[in-house]
Amino acid sequence: MASVNSTGDDRTVNNTMRHQYRVLSDAEKANMQAIKDEGLKFHELVSGLGNSRELSIAKTKIEEAVMWAVKHITA
Prior knowledge:
Elements: H1 26-47, H2 53-74
């Protein structure tokens, strides 16, 4: 499967649920990228602590926080 850059204007190609997107401004694209970058750094930090139910929940919540923040930008 081909990948699509999440900040690219062609990001609708692989999305079956949302049929239309608005074009994001450069500032919105930069904010979305920053949120994902910081979320990934935090996720990697937590992943390096070991394995436990608590850490699994923490990683899920980090992913969820990034999702909701990006949703705010792209809505």
